[in-house]
Amino acid sequence: MIDPALDRPRADFWSAGSRGRPTKALELDRLVEIGQFTEPVESLILRYPAAALASAFLIGVALAWWIKRK
Fold it and tell me: What is the pLDDT of residue 36?
């Protein structure tokens, strides 16, 4: 991400569950996994913004055509 403050959860993200374990542990694990997959995409978008915008536009047009067709 561009803003490093958004890379880690807020302090109130953790709340102790009945067993003393954070209740949001699974969500944090999923956020870390998603971050590992999105980091290369973010770097490509930052390196080639025009190609990313053109790709997003073409995908949007194709998706709109596919939805309209049904």
Answer: 82
